[in-house]
Batch of 2 targets.
Target 1
Amino acid sequence: MTRSEPDAVPVLALEGVSKSFGAVRALRDVSLRLYAGEAHALAGENGAGKSTLIKTLAGVHRPDTGTVLLDGRPVVLHGPADARDAGVAVIYQEPTLFPDLSVAENVFMGRQPRRSLGRVDHRAARTAAAALFARLGVDLDPQQPARGLSIADQQLVEIAKALSSDARVLIMDEPTAALTGSEVARLFGVVRTLREQGAAVLFISHRLEEIFRLCQRVTTLRDGALVASDLLGDPQGRRAPESGGSGASGGSGSTGGSGGSGGSDRPAGSGGAAGPADAADGAGAPGGRGLTEDDLVRRMVGRDLDELYPKQDTPIGEVALDVRQLTREGVFTDVSFTVRHGEIVGLAGLVGAGRSEVARAVFGVDRWDAGSVHVDGRPLTNGAPSIAMAAGLALVPEDRRAQGLVMGMSIERNVNLTALTGLGGTVRGGLMDRRAERSRALDWAVRLQVKYAALADAVGTLSGGNQQKVVLAKWLATTPKVLIVDEPTRGIDVGTKAEVHRLLSRLAADGVAVLMISSDLPEVLGMADRVLVMHEGRLTAEIPRAGATEESVMAAATGRGTTGRAA
Ligand SMILES: Nc1ncnc2c1ncn2[C@@H]1O[C@H](COP(=O)(O)OP(=O)(O)OP(=O)(O)O)[C@@H](O)[C@H]1O
């Protein structure tokens, strides 16, 4: 049986599901069919309803109307345990393993193999875990403690855990957001293996190229409604491995390992969207040639997208941020660079290279052991964020949800949080000027296209991407002289991504010095006037815009040569 046979029965499906939270209609009459052996992407802008949909499949939410079907039969999932028992597992972006337990103990949590007297059989657990990792084609030691595993490895432990309980459906909610390029390649290798073994994978990502690389079908949501469910065609007309539930290996590059950036897994000749009886397939792909990235963006956003990297040329002014020989023992060493007024400097490197740590030290969240930081020629005090802010520095942190928001507080109040320090200008005689607060929040909500019901709603009710936008707004509202943004568009949909880039470009044109930490290479190359690269806690290169290419940046990021040491 292959997934594209019209009479195939989906392993898991939604039919006509609607779900509201108060006045917000998060899902409206949505249907989705997930087949064995397919990687199926779920696309949509922030707040489109993707998380609500997967939570419905995972038994977290009960639909208001509509049905969940397992193997074609309607089921009622009373909670996550019901979904797990039915073979549906969810892998979240940042898994929550028990740090003090071993990898094997985490895999078999609650289901440890036991010996006759009821004692846990650790050796059996290790052997079984090793067999699962071998099945996935990955190299992980079952005996090592979970503490200290990279996020990528933690995800693999979660996947092994799902397999150990015979999961047939794996739902992955933005699993790649915090992974390096090679970790993504390894995860995709695992997903291919799982598909060959007959699993169905539902995959969420805001990175469109990943959807096209990994998936055979994409379902798009807009404002809670289904736009289309399209097969993804292969533009080169190459024949990708046809996989059913049989486990037959049908072609190249489809198992284990860490392939490069190739390895497209799309079905051959899948013009249009003549999938298994999907009513919403009607829209198809233009010209019957398979969906393109532009088509997908149009489906998500409802219009053509403006330029993604609208970088304007701006005169570069005096040095605004001057970081000299900054060292934090064991974290980063001898880091020196400048950012000038009007300039966007990209800070590239692999996850773990020390970029965020430098940003935190510059802003004063962490102390430095040696070196100095000047803003407009004035020295900052070590470990004093309030002094950094008073000097005109702003830091939009990477981990925005944890570091940047008070979840129970309103959207409006969160946007204005920095005003509590007196920086934002809405504190008058010790009282918040509520009208100014509201108008500022509204202004930023519109500029960043935040999707919300009321500004007085708790920020915790927003979708993940919209929460990210509120943190951005909060810091941009301080009108900084120097803005440090850490992964400014991670988790943000493609439409707003262009808007964030336009905003950064405009800030630079207004004279703000922008230091942009980003793992998104096209973003760095598209937006930065100059690119700094870090590798293992040191600056390894400084590359002017004209000389910056994927190759030159990656070479410096992986320590394979430098292109001129940063001064
Ligand atoms: N528990 C909740 N209470 C109130 N509103 C909610 C709740 N959960 C989701 N919503 C709303 O439902 C809508 C859909 O949110 P959802 O999280 O499903 O979006 P998403 O597509 O996953 O977005 P993102 O890409 O930002 O993660 C949003 O308007 C959101 O604010």
Note: The two ends are 61 Å apart (CA to CA).
Target 2
Amino acid sequence: MTAKAPFSDLNEIRAALANLPQPDSEALAAAQARNGMLTKPPAALGRLEDLAIWYAGWVGNARPNLENLQGIVFAGNHGVAAKGVSAFPIEVTVQMVANFRAGGAAINQLLTAFGARTDIVELELDRPTADFTEAPAMSEQDLVAAMAAGWEAVDPKAGLVVTGEMGIGNTTSAAAIAAALHGGGGEAWVGRGSGVDDEGLARKRDVVDAGLALHADALSDPLEVLRHLGGREIAAMAGAILAARHHRIPVILDGFICTAAASVLESVTPGALDHTVAGHVSAEGAHSMMLEKIGKEPLLSLGLRLGEGSGAALAIGVLKGAIACHSGMATFGEAGVSGG
Ligand SMILES: O=C(O)c1ccc[n+]([C@@H]2O[C@H](COP(=O)([O-])O)[C@@H](O)[C@H]2O)c1
Ligand SMILES: Cc1cc2nc[nH]c2cc1C
């Protein structure tokens, strides 16, 4: 099932970002009360308790189940890849999409292992974005189309959405977005991505700085940051995360690139990511700094730097544990256990 995006230009995207649903306060209060009655010392389940209450609030059910889990992998190609900023050639994007469709990638295994389905959305792979050191990466029409594709990929009936991506060159784009939104330059935000050597790393920093300089006049507006420095899969993730908010579907964010996409929404409207949690902190060096900037504490830290949604998929396990305890445990009264 899909729902059509409620926008066809940038102003309508701004309107969708200005008018965000909030969690169900009654369900939140009831989940909080239930949490206090469960057979454990107060707060003994640590962040699992916060997670379950957060989830209950967004789905509007104080004793929820976790079902109909949707993983979406967005793929896009980047003109800036021609600048030698990746350890891999650009054709790997389309080849990996074929691998996703055949079920052979890490994300297929992880989403299946945690009971989620895998949807693949490729965004005009034969038409890479413009190299952002020479021109804006996308036209307004391209940006709106990519965000709409992201919005429309979300199943309005999903109980959870996990957003991931694939795109050779996209850690360069994500670093540039992070620099433009959060301050600093290539030095602060660029890492090795899929594994560039020292020369590649230096080139990548210069490329980010060149993009920031070329588009300096446009970068005070977060959606223009996304248009000038982003990519279609990054814009699509932003659209999907925004759609999930409007459908009140909780989201688990993935790594460096996904967090850059999410940062755009948070920069437009503080609180726009309240329906999301950070699944993990990636081994891409500046990811932890980006998470701090958006006020998110990652659930996992496993040294992953794969993307695809892999860290978010693994974090489904943590959320499942949280909800199983919250909804399945006995209360002190039910179990006849004495309170403290
Ligand atoms: O998610 C992350 O934190 C992450 C960190 C490093 C690399 N990646 C993946 O690697 C690809 C981009 O790497 P690169 O070197 O081509 O920019 C892209 O397909 C991402 O999914 C992803
Ligand atoms: C093989 C390969 C798989 C990936 N998955 C996400 N990004 C990737 C980059 C490469 C190079």
Note: The CA atoms of residues 164 and 337 lie 43 Å apart.
